[in-house]
């Protein structure tokens, strides 16, 4: 594919829409998915006070399929007293057209949504 390049950075931002504030202290793992269904961990981090992880990957990424797994059980138990989603997985296909991909995740007690940010 023309225009593909190395992906320098994959970031995320987790926002708690019930409380109307960033979700701090949420651990995340970035996995690369292979064509055989296997996955390899290629990065990790924990959301800061603003709910952000500025760079999940430790090394540049190539185009491909990736999964961000947010460990939300502890966050929900501490802030909301119950857990419906103990983890949230967001699977994306990065085509290499950008140097930076930003994947925000909006969470609430019984739902979540995500989108491609800037």
TrEMBL record:
InterPro entries: Hydroxyisourate_hydrolase, Transthyretin/HIU_hydrolase, Transthyretin/HIU_hydrolase_d, Transthyretin/HIU_hydrolase_sf. GO terms for molecular function: hydroxyisourate hydrolase activity. GO terms for biological process: purine nucleobase metabolic process. Its EC number is 3.5.2.17. Transmembrane segments: none annotated. It comes from Nakamurella leprariae. Catalyzes the hydrolysis of 5-hydroxyisourate (HIU) to 2-oxo-4-hydroxy-4-carboxy-5-ureidoimidazoline (OHCU). Residues 10-117 form the Transthyretin/hydroxyisourate hydrolase domain. PANTHER family: 5-HYDROXYISOURATE HYDROLASE (PTHR10395:SF7), URICASE AND TRANSTHYRETIN-RELATED (PTHR10395). The gene is uraH. Belongs to the transthyretin family. 5-hydroxyisourate hydrolase subfamily. It catalyses: 5-hydroxyisourate + H2O = 5-hydroxy-2-oxo-4-ureido-2,5-dihydro-1H-imidazole-5-carboxylate + H(+). Keywords: Hydrolase, Purine metabolism. This is 5-hydroxyisourate hydrolase. Substrate binds at residues 13, 52, 115. Homotetramer.
């Amino acid at each position: 594919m023309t225009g593909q390049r190395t992906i320098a950075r994959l970031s995320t931002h987790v926002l708690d829409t019930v409380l109307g504030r960033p979700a701090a202290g949420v651990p995340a793992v970035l996995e690369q998915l292979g064509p055989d269904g296997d996955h390899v961990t290629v990065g990790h981090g924990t959301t800061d006070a603003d709910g952000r992880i500025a760079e999940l990957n430790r090394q540049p990424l190539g185009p491909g399929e990736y999964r961000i797994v947010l460990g939300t059980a502890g966050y929900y138990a501490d802030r909301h007293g119950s857990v419906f989603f103990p983890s949230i997985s967001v699977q994306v296909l990065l085509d290499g057209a950008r140097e930076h991909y930003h994947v925000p995740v909006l969470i609430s007690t019984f739902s979540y949504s995500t989108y491609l940010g800037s």
